[in-house]
Amino acid sequence: METLKTVLLRDGIKAAITLNNDQKDWLGVLLFSAGIKGLGNGIPASRKEINNAVEFEIIPRLNYLLPTMLAIAKIATMVGLLGTVISMIGTFTKIQEAQGGVSEQAGSIGLALFATALGLVTAIPLVFAHVMFKAQINDFELRIKKTTLKFIELATTLKTPLKP
Question: Which positions ≥6 away from 49 have C-beta within 8 Å?
Answer without folding.
Answer: 34, 35, 37, 38
